[in-house]
């Protein structure tokens, strides 16, 4: 059977399943799986995978190997209420395997007043399904699940394994996916349907959080010249960080970044210092996020920040006496990069064009995903492409276009056929 | 009797009273009269003034006239636990009157760990009396009280009235002294023994607190170019305020300010903005203190700040869209200025030289005092000079040199004789 025929069959089957699948996404969105509250949705997903005949693994991640791992980042160390789920659809052998990875943790709904409806309503209006997590990324997860389900319904037997991963902790830096890797799950490639507006992101920007402590010396505001203002010194630090950002971006020549004003930004998001209007501030804390280029080692990026801060003494000798303290803390996402001529890229492009009638846009993501971990640690090249709406992720009135969920499912199903291969008898 | 004879008598009497006076200062320091806790010391001072035969007025300030007064500044509006005290030593008539003003409120002791001893110990070691308030300004208040007492003991009858004022709320902007003025107390001149290291401050810097709100526009840190960083905009605001400070100080030509690097500083003491390292900060709050020159109208200083912030649009059009918000809040001290050829200056100089053997240093204070209110509102020219140690005011291990307390008392007593005049029979 040729791919065009597969496409017709898959499309028709997905149309038949549309109402039921939409209900399932509503159910998922109505389960408010914010950090620490993921057990309910994960158990329900595990049951469904079991019903579909997959080999299901639901477990609570723990242990020294995980917690002491250099890539482990989480605000917590106990995950009892947040199990991971993996379901393996075993292939017949002789084909390439594929991970379909997605996270079920969602960011908090935030200020209820900014939502037009209940943040976890799952309401469908004009083809859009609303609610926290609809776009980031339960809609994408549904595309993955439907891709498997539709192939099963059509009696397809793939040669390679398909490993469906429903992970936790992506929003905090990827401990869930790290745990799947440490548990041994890997494949020849991975797809992650994060909300990309159906753009293909073979490369993903990594990022790490940092904290800078800038010191001054206190004095009365009326004799402020007797002190050293940590606020004034912070201006120099912010400028130095800006200079480093420019240097790092100027030397990037990846054409994927051509359209981005600042491909790997360094954002200082928090400033806080001083305690009294009429005292000279003796301490300022700056917190920010440093973008890491695909292919760049995080340690190298760290070293550049360290060097930039050391150079401050050339601008102001005060920094010799009181060097800026640098701390890497909180969240961290490993950058990811898959070559644009990777065979999966060609397959994706072809199926995208077949399904949508147009050529996919290829970009590098401006944020980190679990793809970096899969690529860097599990030798599983990961490509990020999904139906969610980038602009509404993490925002009030988050929604997803249902049409895109089903188009993505269609593309993924066709991609699985091409990537994993199909047993002759099932054709 | 000539002044030299008076000096001998006064000096000898003060020596006799030294032990008792030192105990009294210990008692005062041991009464921790932080804001809201001044009743105990004020009642004890009122009793003492009554025993000395002064007409005593102890009252709790209140009422619309005070609370709605343009110079009223306080974090509170109810002062039940903080009465004011005034004692009038009525003169025989025909002489100039004098206010001796001092505050009993002390700033909090702060971190106990930074004190070598109990912050309210009143302990005397090597001629220094230790404790919060010893220098700022109970030691000075004792000098004033002793000046009256020693004259009484010597049987002196002054022609002019001496008005001893023991006020609250100086540390919060002067509501206590404002209340004495509204109650009708005024005089031909005033002395305020704030901690000046016995320097004479005919002029005092005023100050006002302000709050600036700088706006940005939020965005994800990975696409920070889609937002506008309120932190980056704040740098421009801090620079604009610095430029204004320079302009204001460059045009000051008062020789009293010659030795000060920045006579009327604008101090930005607090910065706070942004909530998340990987988000673009959409709001930054800056809080500071603007120095006001002696002789300058506070409204003029405010207008200059306003104008400087308006000029920001010339540097960055963003400020046309989102102007910086300016708010005057919290504490405020009116500047004060007495001409250097004021007759009280000459008397003070002469008595200072007579008592200490050297010429007094004349400067302008880098901070506000209640003198500004007395000069501006009560037509009572106020000069600030006192025995406290400027450097330890508001600091841990605050102390005062007892010798200076008694020298100041001697100078004040002699000054009262010259300023208020003495009845012939008492000579």
What is this structure's SSE topology?
The structure is a homodimer of 427-residue chains.
Chain A: H1 3-30, H2 39-51, E1 55-59, H3 64-67, E2 84-89, E3 98-103, E4 124-125, E5 128-130, H4 134-153, E6 162-167, H5 175-182, E7 189-192, E8 200-204, E9 206-215, H6 230-250, E10 266-273, E11 283-292, H7 298-310, H8 312-315, H9 318-321, E12 325-333, E13 336-337, H10 343-356, E14 362-365, H11 371-377, E15 382-384, E16 399-401, H12 402-420
Helix pairs in contact in A: 1-4, 1-12, 4-12, 6-7, 10-12
Keywords (chains A, B): Cobalt, Hydrolase, Metal-binding, Zinc
Cofactor (chains A, B): Co(2+); Zn(2+)
Family (chains A, B): Belongs to the peptidase M20A family.
Could you explain the architecture of this structure?
- The structure is a homodimer of 427-residue chains.
- Chain A has 427 residues and is α/β, with parallel strands linked by helices.
- The first copy, chain A, folds into two domains: 3-204 and 335-426, Zn peptidases (Aminopeptidase, 3-Layer(aba) Sandwich); 206-332, Alpha-Beta Plaits (2-Layer Sandwich).
- Chain A has twelve helices and 16 strands.
- Chain A has helices at 3-30, 39-51, 64-67, 134-153, 175-182, 230-250, 298-310, 312-315, 318-321, 343-356, 371-377, 402-420, and strands at residues 55-59, 84-89, 98-103, 124-125, 128-130, 162-167, 189-192, 200-204, 206-215, 266-273, 283-292, 325-333, 336-337, 362-365, 382-384, 399-401.
- In chain A, helix 1 crosses helix 4 and helix 6 (230-250) crosses helix 7 (298-310).
- The first copy, chain A, is elongated, with a radius of gyration of 24 Å.
- At the A-B interface, strand 9, helix 6, strand 10 and strand 11 of A face strand 9, helix 6, strand 10 and strand 11 of B.
- Strand 10 of chain A pairs antiparallel with strand 10 of chain B, so a sheet runs across the interface.
- Chains A, B: Residues 204-313 form the Peptidase M20 dimerisation domain.
- Chains A, B: Belongs to the peptidase M20A family.
- Chains A, B: This is Acetylornithine deacetylase.
- Chains A, B: It comes from Brevibacillus reuszeri.
């Amino acid at each position: 059977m040729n791919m065009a025929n597969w496409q017709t069959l898959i499309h028709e089957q997905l149309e038949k399943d549309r109402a039921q699948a939409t209900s399932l996404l509503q159910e998922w969105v109505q389960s408010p799986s914010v950090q620490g509250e993921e057990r309910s949705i994960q158990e329900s997903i595990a049951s469904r995978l079991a019903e579909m005949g997959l080999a299901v693994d639901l477990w609570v991640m723990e242990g020294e190997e995980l917690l002491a791992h250099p890539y482990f980042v989480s605000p917590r160390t106990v995950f009892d209420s947040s199990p991971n789920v993996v379901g393996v659809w075993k292939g017949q052998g002789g084909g390439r395997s594929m991970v379909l990875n997605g996270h079920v943790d969602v960011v908090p709904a935030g200020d209820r007043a900014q939502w037009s409806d209940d943040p976890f309503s799952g309401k469908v209006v004009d083809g859009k399904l609303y609610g926290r997590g609809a776009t980031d990324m339960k809609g994408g997860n549904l595309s993955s699940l439907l891709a498997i389900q539709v192939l099963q319904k059509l009696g397809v037997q793939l040669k390679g394994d398909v490993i469906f991963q429903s992970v936790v902790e992506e929003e905090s830096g990827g401990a869930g996916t790290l745990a799947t890797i440490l548990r041994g799950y890997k494949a020849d490639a991975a797809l992650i349907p994060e909300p990309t507006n159906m753009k293909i992101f073979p490369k993903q920007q990594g990022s790490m959080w940092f904290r800078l402590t800038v010191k001054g010396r206190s004095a009365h505001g009326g004799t402020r010249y007797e002190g050293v203002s940590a606020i004034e010194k912070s201006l120099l630090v912010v400028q130095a960080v800006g200079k480093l950002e420019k240097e790092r971006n100027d030397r990037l020549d990846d054409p994927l970044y051509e359209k981005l004003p600042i491909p790997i930004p360094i954002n200082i998001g928090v400033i806080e210092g001083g305690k009294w209007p009429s005292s000279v501030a003796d301490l300022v804390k700056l917190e920010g996020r440093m973008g890491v280029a695909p292919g760049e080692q995080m340690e190298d990026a760290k070293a550049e920040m360290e060097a930039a801060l050391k150079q401050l003494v050339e601008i102001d000798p005060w920094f010799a006496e009181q060097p800026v303290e640098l701390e890497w803390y909180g969240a961290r996402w490993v950058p990811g990069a898959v070559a644009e001529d990777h065979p999966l890229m060609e397959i994706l492009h072809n199926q995208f064009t077949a399904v949508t009638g147009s050529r996919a846009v290829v970009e590098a993501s401006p944020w980190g995903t679990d793809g970096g971990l899969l690529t860097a640690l599990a030798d599983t090249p990961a490509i990020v492409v999904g139906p969610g709406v980038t602009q509404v992720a993490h925002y009030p009135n988050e929604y997803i276009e249902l049409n895109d969920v089903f188009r993505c499912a269609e593309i993924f199903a066709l991609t699985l056929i091409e990537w994993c291969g199909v047993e002759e008898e099932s054709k």
